[in-house]
Amino acid sequence: MAASGALPGLFLCFSAMVLLIFVSVSAPTWNSISFMDVGDLSFGVFGYTGSKAHVGYSFPLSVPGTNSGVLHNLTYALILYPIAAGLAGISVLFGLCGAAYHRAGTVFMSLTAALALLCTLVVWVISTTLFGIERAKLRDYGIDATWGNATWIGLGALVALLLGFCTAACGVFGSYRRNRRYGTY
Known about the structure:
elongated
């Protein structure tokens, strides 16, 4: 019999993992998901439309200030999205152990969900700041730059991890006893 206390946290951590995987495979791998769109260019975790996928990149736009060292270095921090997806996946595995058998799985699920939550929070703030600054600079020069959907997918993953952590932490106190039938004497 499954431990019902672990199931809500397990579902929410799984949902967050799927959303973080979607964000991680954003442009240039999957151009439908991006942080910012500028004309035909879509910017993602590992680059932009037409670039090779790699960690850290420079913006290919000829607007003054778009390739400052700080903004270029912030693109390296976007690697935290796949790391957060991995941590959320580990929390799902622990949640399966907690749902199937033992309370320790739920405890470890809540701990790894907390790590994934912290990682997602940091990278979401960094990506929102990075692409918000770039968007404002481009709009100052009359270039139409719009937010992509990866920012909001990342926010959805952040909320799912927050709720998953809270429900997993509460699920630790659920019933994990197995019904045992004792022989009658």
